[in-house]
Amino acid sequence: MRTDNPGGERCDVLVAGAGPTGLAVALAAHDHGASVRVVDCRSRSPRPSRAFLVHPRTLEVLRPYGVTGALLDLGHLGPRMHVHLNGQSVSARLGDFRLADTAYPHFLLARQADVEAVLGRALGDRGVAVEWDTRVQGYEIDSTRNSVVTHCGAKKFESRYLVGCDGRSSTVRTAAGIDWRGGRYRYEVLLADVDVTDDVQVEDAHVFVGRRGLVFLLPLGERARWRLVATAPPLRSRALAGDMLPQTMLDDAGASCRVVDVAWSERVSVEHRLAARFRNGPVFLAGDAAHAYSPAGGQGMNAGLQDAANLGWKLAFATRGSLSDDSPLLRSYEQERRSVARRVLALTRLLHWVEAGRDPLSFFARGAVSSMGASLLPLALRQRRLEARAVRLLSQLRWNYRRSILSIDGGADAPGVASAGERLPDEHIRVEGGRCRLHELTAVPAVHVLLCRDAHWPTTPPVDDELVKVHRILGWSGTGVVIVRPDGYVGFRGADSHRAGAWLRMVGVGSASSSE
């Protein structure tokens, strides 16, 4: 494991942007052996949260870095959601979904600011401090030193790789000459911290369904008890401005509660955009710098954190010296995550239309839901299999990298746990030390080699690599081998240990491990 040198100006990975994505990229790269630095143009003062939902898959990919427990402690785990339709209310819990293959079968309500605080503390514990008030102005590539020189005012940072996690107006993306394709929605999102009358349950979340759209009241206010989130109409008059708008939105959705104080409010433009590329040579994009979604479905922060889980370990492995910038390992990031981003973009555009569309058809659909939903929603909520499928889709549990250059599947006697490119499901297993769950075994930053009971694993020449962990699963019969990537996806599945060793060499961590 490499030791960071805060006093020096050169590092393996320089991350621009200390939001959730940037902090998670730095954490993943550091824990897989890279030296990292994080810069941000902001001061230390926190910004109001714009994201509030953490998905099951996100909790899984953050688990190896020891932060998931802290997130669960700070958030609202599986809160009760009250859906208000046409004067009636239907309740359901955002937890305990029928998902047997994950330790986190629930959504987590958590402020973006709390997610940033947890990730920032984890980096601080590792000796990596965010360098605030440091604005990236551009960069140049020094081919003689195989490095990127990033200009931040009078300061220059030299790194092997630069990662732009600096948001929708990314300076890194602009400097890299990468097109920002898409556009803006016609309507903005209203965020407000409010206090309301006491006729709503104070520890629960509320959704008010109206013909003009949905209004959310979440128990996550930062300057008042409630955070109100709604899609706001164009600002045509001062009557829709300032403190009057939250009450107007609640009235339009048929809410009976009254706003008694507006402690803070902000209108945020909403975009649907996708970067034409996710990298330019040694410069990479992640999070909002790479894609911008409607907030419908809570995809933005979660997609960025999963970008980070995908990219961080790859950059760290690439700095080990044997891989070129054109290696399959580095090429796979854009191939995998841009493909997912396209699908998430399509999903969020559909959800945005359902939630906030202003065309006659969406008005009619929401009107039908408002009039009939109180009787139909309880029936829908009892369809647990349908519910589980929807959760898998929203939380990216169903997304896969089967077509990735890193996904190699084949050979007789391959374990049936998952195909190459698919997320490794959690399940109860038996190992030499007893019984445990599979994700407990793999919740360590490393590549994990899972051997079936009779699998042969070569030990010559021995490779003592702390980033390769080998486990024999006594309950899996046969001679197959499964290699699990650090982000929890199956990279290799087969019965040929030599091909498995070739996969390890392809990602830069040697051919075999001498310990089981």
Please tell me the CATH architecture of one domain by its name. 3-Layer(bba) Sandwich
Q: Which radius of gyration do the C-alpha atoms yield?
A: 24 Å
Strand content: 25-35%
Question: Uncertain spans, ≥5 residues at pLDDT below 50?
Answer: 1-8, 368-376, 512-516
Helix content: 25-40%
> Which overall shape is indicated by the principal axes computed on the Cα atoms?
globular
The CATH top-level class label of one domain = Alpha Beta
What is the CA-CA span between the terminal residues? 21 Å
Q: Find the CATH superfamily of one domain.
A: FAD/NAD(P)-binding domain
Could you tell me the mean pLDDT?
86
Class from helix and strand fractions: alpha+beta
| Number of beta strands | 28
Q: Could you give a short account of the major beta sheet?
A: 8 strands, mixed
Please work out how many helical segments DSSP would assign.
12
